Amino acid sequence: MIRIKICCISSLAEAQTAISFGADAIGLVGKMPSGQGVITDDLICSIAKSVPPPVATFLLTSETSSVGIVSHHRKVNTSTIQIVDALKLGSYRNIREQLPNVKIVQVIHVIDERSVDEAVQISEQIDALLLDSGNPNLAVKELGGTGRTHNWSLSRKIVEQSKVPVFLAGGLNAENVREAIETVQPFGVDVCSGVRTDCKLDEWKLEAFFKAVL
To answer: Of 93, 162, 164, 214, most Cβ neighbours within 10 A?
Structure first.
């Protein structure tokens, strides 16, 4: 069964709506250089506390050091950390030592063949990968929520070689998610803008998305 993560959750009501449709996980976006869905750490903490198991809560953090990531997580206490940029200082081991019960998901922004090599190497150190369509190399980094798809053939290569489960994100919606699943064969899918209208969670789009996946 394909897992479904609904990202950019902005309120307790949105979290409840996503869960009522059957979401396996929700994404809570911390401070970012760009993109949609950013909420305060206090609100992330409140939403995370309200979510019943076994639904997973993902903190999307743009911190790039293990110290910064651990510090961010301790403010919100989600079940999972989604690192949306490259880890530049410290190590995944440092994070695990400090947060042994928290899952680590690393985002890979799929740009070219080098993204495949990066993903496969990193997959040996984390709990899951999430493939997105941002570009961290821009002057103002794009770290998710772009509404764009990427080259799914590259994502399929990553799925085939990864040591851990892989989520697929980037421009997914009810019209293309079935093709994406058949092409990439991911463990799960992640959607933000594809189930929103005017930045608000849209129940009609949610229903269509879940039907297309399941």
So the answer is: 162
pTM for this entry: 0.94
Identify whether the C-beta of residue 108 lies closer than 8 Å to the C-beta of residue 115. yes
Range of the domain at 163: 3-213
CA proximity to 16, closest of 50, 60, 49, 46: 50
pLDDT of 135 higher than 70: no
CA distance 65 to 70: 9
With bands split at pLDDT 50, 70 and 90, how would you rate the model's confidence at 89?
Answer: very high
- Which residue, 173, 92, 186, is CA-closest to 131? 186
Closest CA to 126 of 76, 163, 167: 163
Q: How far, in Å, are 21, 35, 212 from residue 178 at the CA level?
A: 18, 25, 6
Q: Is the pLDDT of residue 120 over 90?
A: yes
Tokens of 46: 């409140």
Segment 183-192 mean pLDDT? 98
The residues pairing with 9 across neighbouring beta strands, listed in sequence order, are: none
Per the structure, how many domains does the chain have?
A: 1
